[in-house]
Amino acid sequence: MSYGSGLATAMARRLGRPCVYTPSARLALYLALRHWCRPGARVLMSPVNDDVILFVVLAAGLRPVQAPVSARDGNIDPAAVPEETWRNVDAVLTTNLYGMPDRVVELRRRCDQLGIPLFEDAAHAIGTRVAGRPIGTFGKAAAFSLSKHVAAMAGGFLAVEDERTRRRLEELRDELLVPSSLRTDLTTTLRPLARSAVRGLHLVHPVWRTMRRLGMLERDTFRMDLHAPRLARCASEAPSLTAYEPWVRVDLHGYRSRHGALVRAQLRARMARLDDDLARRGVGASLLARTTWASPALRDRTADGGPPPLFRVPLLVQDRDILVDRLVRHGVVTGYIYDPPLDDYAGAEFVEPSPDPSAARWFAAHALPADPLLAQQINRALSKERATPARPPSGDREERPLPARPTGG
Ligand SMILES: Cc1ncc(COP(=O)(O)O)c(C=O)c1O
Questions:
Q1: Considering the chain, what percentage of its residues have pLDDT values greater than 90?
Q2: What are 300-309's pLDDT values in tens digits?
Q3: From the CA of 409, how far away is ligand 1's center (Å)?
Q4: Cα 147 to middle of ligand 1, angstroms
């Protein structure tokens, strides 16, 4: 039996594709990039993304090429990618930001025409479907994260097209795993429980303030420190996870740990609750999609069978940073803000900038990712704070008139 095969089988059953278990989605993405891309290859990706993913691409020895995005949902806008860029990329990586699907049918068609692989980052989108098909079944490979959906703070999968590829990627994974200790496994098991306790006891605000004061948060702003000179020196060692470890491990130091039976048993128990978790997310997403702050992509969904069971609900607000601070007083800590976009954050030395960064900048500055499991609490808090909705600038390619709808709040 291969490592994590019980978990992988459960996920394969859900998805209808063979899966490799990994301790994190970032390791799953690294495996895919190493398997399909030669060092120096150019990967088209969205700049509205977690910085960790940028560092995974760099660690794999690849050049991140930033795509124009749609201001409606922050995902790659394939129609806005210049033809010259299409001709000069070797792979495409989606984001499925907050669980809103990328334009995967179009991206797959493009990739097939060009003979390049499509990789799906499905870390936010475990329950999202497009044309009845789960996200994660459109590309050559897809990465999933249990840290996100069942708050397990460990665990992930790489879904692939066939069994032979699965076996080869398992071998590659085994070469990259590092041994775990009982102490690490205990911490990994207890962290999610501690987080639920903090929430249950309404201690979010004081605990967050104390952690910040003690320097326990790995990011002071929405992005981690780049440490550009050190990062530049690592390039000669790429591909290498070890060289890029300080950046790749942020928020999840056990991302490549070979966790023992204790952690995997906890993950199995949490995975058994996945459908309940998704159902609750669906309810919260529907509530927030009907508010005045919902992004246009989200509003379109309300008319169209409702939003997917999102990881976070993309609301669009004016003065977002002030609101983020105020929400802490209401017991809501907002994570997963990807501002500034990766090309503004890392610069041309590390990424190829987007030819049209305006929509990414706008979306990154106005997006307020709301946890659908806290939908009522967030709705009340935003109303109390008199949050003002933000509308994407006119001229966004996909802009369509918004349907008239009573505003929530
Ligand atoms: C879009 C996206 N993909 C992948 C990951 C990595 O997931 P994991 O923490 O399981 O490695 C993250 C982490 O936050 C993310 O936001």
A1: 81
A2: 887 778 899 9
A3: 30
A4: 8
